[in-house]
Amino acid sequence: xxxxxxxxxxxxxxxxxxxxxxxxxxxxxxxxxxxxxxxxxxxxxxxxx
Length: 49
Description:
By secondary structure, this protein is an all-alpha fold. The chain has a domain at 13-40. The chain has one helix at 12-42. The two termini are 32 Å apart.
């Protein structure tokens, strides 16, 4: 899966950009990993008829 986000930054934010990027990617990776684990264990929820 690929994810891309663009945000223009300046000043001190420009220096912090790599750290912010890593934090965002780690958070997204962890969330997707948890979703996959939930779907593999519990399966897809059934819709009531």
